């Protein structure tokens, strides 16, 4: 048996208000005459957070348009613009949700690698390190802050640039930045973490490393979405650590059925990751009975709307596309259902599941 040897995030700072240390943290990473680029989620345009960004010299704020989830074309364009305008940069600091953090990772990598980001969608295809990169989440749940991937929709597939060069050099975990996110968004992204935990803990790839992180993350999600009556600062604190631990849990294991099916939705219909996972989880009693029961309780308790009927009226061809994307996620199915997963999840069964969504 060969065990995977993980590259992790190099530096982590956690705490309310730790964003204020950013200037000091990145100071040693600045290179003479080369700017730091702050890639900021477009939600913060015109918001007070911008005044707290430690701009120096010719540093720039670039807004990340995350109306849609990141695309390879968007990454290539951003990287090319920086190269054309500035030559090279000291680093990229991504401030936002999972989409902005993934964009920041991808753009940093493309500052050091030739061609298109689409060339690197896959495993260990990235050849050179990019520029320095830091991730600062403003939503909690995806685990993108700790993962070794950045999920991109490319010309032929939705797949990340998975590599040892992909993890951030630094992450700044300041729960204050997630305060006041809209309830539905907070829930969808938070549930990404909850679902990561269920899929990891119920999966066949589980080992003690993944279990330790997964159990802790699950407990934190339950504290926030099951036990708490009113959202408070402690919820933001806990959910940020849940996201971190949930991300660490899947580093050694894998996600499962909800993610495999949700990828099909997102590829065809552009359904966003968090909400897509929720739409699927709602119908997975057969695979995760206890998790789905609790998920439904959390939906009700937090008064969240989960869309239904999103596959109504799709053509056979469209169903085929979703089935192809979904069934192609082999490690996810193997983790969820075991080595003989193909016997348990047939195309017919998957079609029936898509039709329910
Ligand atoms: P997101 O980044 O797509 O953002 C969702 C919305 O919330 C956007 O409109 C954004 O502008 C807004 N937003 C961000 N912060 C906010 C705040 N503090 N207050 C109010 N609004 C705010 O959402 P997400 O769920 O964090 O990320 C989903 C993305 O993460 C997907 O693209 C998915 O593929 C990716 N993802 C990556 C990994 C990984 O390991 N790299 C893992 C899971 C998901
Ligand atoms: Zn996810």
Structure explained in plain terms:
The strands form two sheets. A six-stranded parallel beta sheet has the order 1-9-6-4-2-3, with helices on one face. Strands 5-8-7 form a three-stranded mixed beta sheet, covered by helices on one side. It has two domains: 11-178, Rossmann fold; 183-356, Dehydroquinate synthase-like, alpha domain. The protein is of the alpha/beta class and 357 residues long. It starts with 10 loop residues before the first strand and ends with a helix. It is built from 13 helices and nine strands. It has helices spanning 22-26, 72-86, 98-110, 183-201, 208-227, 233-252, 257-269, 273-281, 289-301, 316-327, 330-337, 341-344, 347-356; strands at 11-14, 36-41, 60-64, 91-96, 122-123, 132-137, 151-153, 158-162, 170-173. Bound molecules: nicotinamide-adenine-dinucleotide (NAD) and zinc ion. The site of zinc ion has 6 residues, from helix 4 and helix 8.
Write the layout of secondary structure elements.
Layout (H helix, E strand, L loop, with lengths): L10 E4 L7 H5 L9 E6 L18 E5 L7 H15 L4 E6 L1 H13 L11 E2 L8 E6 L13 E3 L4 E5 L7 E4 L9 H19 L6 H20 L5 H20 L4 H13 L3 H9 L7 H13 L14 H12 L2 H8 L3 H4 L2 H10 L1
Parallel strand pairs: 1-9, 2-3, 2-4, 4-6, 5-8, 6-9
Antiparallel strand pairs: 7-8
Helix pairs in contact: 2-3, 4-5, 4-6, 4-8, 5-6, 7-8, 7-10, 10-13
The chain binds nicotinamide-adenine-dinucleotide (NAD) and zinc ion (ZN).
């Amino acid at each position: 048996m060969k065990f995977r040897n993980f590259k992790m995030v190099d530096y982590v700072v956690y705490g309310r208000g730790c964003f204020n240390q950013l200037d000091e943290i990145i100071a040693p990473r600045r290179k003479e005459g080369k700017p730091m680029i702050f890639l900021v989620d477009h939600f913060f345009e015109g918001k007070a957070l911008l005044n707290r960004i430690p701009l120096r010299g010719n540093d720039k704020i670039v807004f990340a348009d995350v109306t849609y989830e990141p695309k390879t074309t968007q990454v290539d364009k951003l990287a090319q613009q920086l190269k054309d305008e500035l030559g090279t940069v000291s680093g990229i600091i991504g401030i936002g949700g999972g989409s902005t953090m993934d964009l920041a990772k991808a753009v940093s990598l493309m500052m050091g690698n030739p061609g298109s980001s689409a060339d690197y969608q896959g495993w260990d295809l990235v050849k050179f390190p990019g520029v320095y990169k830091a991730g600062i989440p403003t939503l909690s749940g995806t685990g993108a802050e700790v993962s070794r991937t950045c999920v991109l929709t490319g010309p032929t597939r939705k797949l990340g640039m998975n590599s040892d060069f992909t993890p951030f050099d630094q992450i700044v975990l300041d729960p204050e930045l997630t305060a006041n996110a809209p309830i539905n968004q907070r829930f969808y992204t938070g549930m990404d973490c909850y679902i990561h935990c269920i899929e990891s803990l119920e999966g066949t790839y589980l080992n003690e490393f993944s279990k330790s992180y997964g159990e802790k993350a699950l407990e934190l999600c339950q504290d926030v979405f099951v036990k708490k009556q009113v959202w408070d600062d402690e919820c933001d604190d806990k959910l940020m650590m849940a996201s971190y631990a949930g991300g660490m849990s899947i580093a050694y294991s894998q996600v499962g059925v909800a993610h495999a099916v949700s990828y099909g939705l997102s590829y065809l219909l552009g359904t966003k990751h968090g909400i897509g996972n929720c739409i699927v989880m709602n119908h997975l009693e057969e695979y995760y009975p206890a998790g789905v029961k609790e998920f439904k309780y959390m939906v009700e308790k937090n008064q969240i709307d989960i869309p239904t009927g999103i596959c109504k009226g799709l053509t056979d061809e469209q169903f085929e596309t979703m089935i192809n994307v979904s069934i192609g996620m082999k490690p996810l199915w193997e983790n969820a259902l075991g080595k003989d997963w193909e016997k348990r999840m047939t195309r017919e069964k998957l079609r029936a599941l898509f039709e329910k969504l």
